Amino acid sequence: MYIVGVDLGGTEIKVGLVDREKGIVRKVSRATEVDKGPDKIVENIALAIKEVAGDDDFEYVGIGSPGSIDRKKGIVRFSPNFPDWRDFHLTEKVSELIDKEIIVENDANAFTLGEWYFGKAKGSQNFIALTLGTGIGSGVVANGTFITGNNGIGAELGHIVIVPEGPMCGCGSRGCLESVASAKFVGLHARELAPRYPESLMIKFAGDINKIESKHVFKACEENDELAKIVVNETVEVLARAIGGYVHMFNPEMIIIGGGMSKAGETLFKPLRERTKKYVMVSFRGTYRIEQSDLVENAGILGAASAAIFSKGVE
Amino acid sequence: MYIVGVDLGGTEIKVGLVDREKGIVRKVSRATEVDKGPDKIVENIALAIKEVAGDDDFEYVGIGSPGSIDRKKGIVRFSPNFPDWRDFHLTEKVSELIDKEIIVENDANAFTLGEWYFGKAKGSQNFIALTLGTGIGSGVVANGTFITGNNGIGAELGHIVIVPEGPMCGCGSRGCLESVASAKFVGLHARELAPRYPESLMIKFAGDINKIESKHVFKACEENDELAKIVVNETVEVLARAIGGYVHMFNPEMIIIGGGMSKAGETLFKPLRERTKKYVMVSFRGTYRIEQSDLVENAGILGAASAAIFSKGVE
Q1: What is this model's ipTM?
Q2: Within chain B, which residue ranges are assigned CATH 3.30.420.40?
Q3: pLDDT, averaged across chain B
């Protein structure tokens, strides 16, 4: 039977009817309408689920959301997308409108499970998943086990300190990976340096020096822009150092990278593969691949559905 | 029934008769006699096993050895203790003299399994084991699984780069943890700096500036020696950074530290616990403990026996 996957974003709710073998068979999207309050958001989720299911029955619903999630209690502790949610009983609220079991999971865990069931890591026993977006999310499967740790909060690879004297991160550390390699930081760093490079193509691409984002940096880098090359080089350096660490930790066969910044493709991946060698000892050479996620726009829906599948199967 | 654990060192072979519940019931030791060649070493191992067993029967034998071990084939690929061994079929050779199944395992993995079955991590589902000796060995149990990775070479925490522009390590990287926090490095670093601190107690304790080892550094640190405090402080800093990373990766309940340098006790552990907080984000505070191994001189024998128990149970 089908599973419904809900990718709960701050502006849009994407919902898919998912078949375990075939993936997404149908999908719809709806505005989240955050400004109209929690009840309206829950109503929109329910309407989208009903719309996507139509006359087809489904087993259960997985919801993927950014933020701190208590998957066992079905609670969103807090989420950057919904600033007024504090310990919000999302699954309880949705199940008042949809008479099925509802599972909620952190979007990074969902992404990892989505790659495991539907992506390049399908069937893998050892891989790492990273999402390079506004923040950096991550998940780990090691020796066939989805690693969550003693309190279920492990695999926070984005908050490991990589540059000890680096910039302050929201997590309270200096120089954790998220603070020096997220799309948000890449945009910020480029905007800081741009006044020294007034001819930089990234300014042209963005239209305004204050509107430079990571996508403009990578686009300019493709055109051999000097400042863009500097920023991409710095980003690749810290990512390579981090990934080198993961390789020694987990001996994974694959590191799969998704999220907005992964769309830069080979402009990011080619130097990243090259540079990572510097941080990996000889016995690990050739044991791992660094791959771009190919789930793209469907990653959120498939991840949410996968979180539900995993939850039903294991817990 | 009993298991025999063999701690195969470069100068001494320690062998114990081990009960799964009670631990070591009897132990003996014998000179390794490395200079007399591989056949003599194997003979000494067999003699020690027979001596420790006496009239008691035992199920199988676990051997723990430093170096690169192929546990499936029972081969020592290479070992710092036995420079002329290359792909040495240790288990085959020993079983010619002892008619039981013989299992060989890397000493760091053995240490981890020993802590799991007999040490402070007994029954834990999530912990990290580190040995701070000449090198740095490590092992990980996450979500109840002993993590070995895709090629069985994972959990090499000692070779993760911690100081990107740090000293060259034998592994080919610069500034991996082993190159900046092993007992060997601590001694070397102290000897380099000692000429600038001719009054340092570590020189007095060692008797000669060229004989300073890590134990003299920690002993001098207890006496508030200025140079010793500098060296210990630097060591604690890189260890804290490394452990902070492990906490985010694995969300372990415990990090257990053994090996020669752990004997420094609170002189090492107190500042290490304090400093690690700097590298751990708030949600992980209070989730982990940093503990000194209490297996001490028995760690090698119990680890070797545990490697055999694990191997029989899981593979």
Answers
A1: 0.91
A2: 2-112+298-314, 123-293
A3: 95
